[in-house]
Amino acid sequence: MALNAIDGMLAREHGQRSTLGAYLNELTDVISDAALYLPFAFVAPFGALSVGLVIWLAAVSEMAGALGPMVGASRRYEGPMGKSDRAFVFGALGLWLGLAGQLPAWLAWLMPAIALLMVANIINRVRAGLSEIRRQQQG
Prior knowledge:
By secondary structure, the protein is mainly alpha-helical. The protein is built from five helices and no strands. The longest helix has 29 residues, at 110-138. It is globular. It starts with a helix and ends with a helix. The model has no long low-confidence stretch (mean pLDDT 92).
């Protein structure tokens, strides 16, 4: 997460933004999310269905944000449970798993909760992009 942010910041700061870089940034973000979240499908109390849903919603969330420029709005980063939030949650889960060796059964609710928050994220990103377009058309 930190390297991703630094990479983008350096590209903007030094005028090294490119169309290929934009494609690679968005695509590798989605691919890295999937690669980092997928192992949790094999960790109790989670399962393939709940983790798979989170992976799919993460990709849709990033697409909803990246579509902003396609319709004349800015890149959308609204939350809840955007990329930074997901990185924090999955990082904390990985740390917990690494230190304790297993996750408690009561965490079974976490993936469905993340999925619901990401549905709200997708709705927020689309609404914010549409709202920005409406403001541009009015003003």
